[in-house]
Amino acid sequence: MELPWCNKSADRIAVHESASPARGLIQQSGTGTELRVSPKWRRGGGCFTIGRVTNESLPSSIESSTLQEGAELLIGLLVSPSLSEVLGPDFATSMRETLMQQHPGVRWAVTWAEDRLGDPPVQSLDLMEAARERVLTEGWDLTVVLTDIPLKDRRRPVLTQLSPLHGVGLVAIPALGARHPRRKAQEVSVRIVGQLLGYDAEDANAQRSLAQRARQLSTDVEERPDDNSAQFTARVISGNIRLLLGMIRANQPWAFIVRLSRALVVAAATGVLTLVASDLWLLATAYGPARLALLAVMAVITVSATVIMGGGLWERPRSHAEREQVTLFNLATSGTVVVGVLVFYLALFLLSLVGAFLLIDQGVLAAVVGHPVNALDYGKISWLTASLATIGGALGAGLEDDDVVRAAAYTRSNA
Q: In a 3-state reduction of DSSP, which class is residue 189?
């Protein structure tokens, strides 16, 4: 039974009778009804004894429409022990109230835990992945890490780093300065939560979009024993399409390949060699659109698979409870990489087209291919060049360090 709202009195927890059976397991006992809830709903223990479930158990101020919006979005705050006194014991409560004021369409829940996650020197990516482990273990939806460890992006100090795919945001509290660190930490934390959910203040429908993504993130896909992996993945996609698109967009996939320097170098070298190779001119002008398109698709798939598998970007669930979150993560990762590679391919095509017009003389090209040439022939040469250069980029990506690939795919920094 899902626990959309509860009111714990001295001897019972009242649960709305319209709750769906998606999250928990009800078992009858001699003294009442025992409710075993999933970690996402756990509050200091896994079992409660509850009284008779009735509509009257709910306060009149809670509207049924609010209860049916979805489960609470549970945010875990991971705080370095040295910062507990600075932030204060009611930081989580205060942050929840601010979230409710700024984004009233979401039912927020904020929990607090002390964990430094690592000791200096530690990389931001290591903190991200350690926080991700806590998200999966605790059943949280998102986590914000308030750390006393300075964050850096290529030796440049930054205030925050976030990974929409992991659902993790890091905040370097020392970078906030000595004045009003608690207020600044709360403001930054609330902003990070919005960024993780793809909130765009300039969008007229930003609040509605954020609320929809939050509901999808906090609502589990119903488990079906007879589902295979393909069926389960299809239901995860259909039930979380807005969330997936928001995660991919927030991860800025168009900037992904730019962070892989070796892939860029190998792709550029391959492109130049292709443009000046007369044998490839003959092949390009002889190929039809279907063959060139097939080569382009193969190139994009090759690079995407190399980056995902070679860079260790694919997760495997360690338990049944993690299955949906890991599936969402893998889908968003794949989407980020594929979109990034497509943008990379388009950029290579445009550069190749400019290079072809600059480097290949029309008369020489006509003499090599044996017929008059036009812009279409230059376009075919550029198309083949972009495909071969992209495959060359896959070789370069294979040479990148795994940490570099993961950092390029996951982390976004703000000064």
A: helix
- Angle at which helix 402-410 crosses helix 323-359, to 10 degrees, equals 100
Q: How far apart are CA 14 and CA 54, in angstroms?
A: 8
Comparing CA positions, the residue from 381, 389, 344, 374 lying closest to residue 359 is 381
In this structure, the strands spanning 73-79 and 168-172 are unpaired
- Return the SS3 of 90: coil
Measured CA to CA, the distance from residue 381 to residue 353 in angstroms comes to: 8
**Closest Cα partner for 356 from 266, 284, 264?**
284
Q: Determine the Cα–Cα distance for residues 267 and 394; give it in Å rounded to an integer.
A: 8
Q: What is the pLDDT of residues 70-84, one digit of tens each?
A: 568 999 999 999 998
Secondary element (H or E) of residue 110: strand 108-114
Residue 102: the pLDDT is 92
- d(C-alpha 170, C-alpha 382), whole Å: 42
Is the backbone peptide bond immediately before 121 cis, with ω within 30 degrees of 0? yes
**Is this structure's pTM higher than 0.85?**
no
What are the b/e assignments for 43-57, b being 16+ CB within 10 Å?
A: eeeeebebeebeeeb
Give the SS3 label for residue 142: strand
Alpha carbon distance 350, 343 (integer Å) = 11
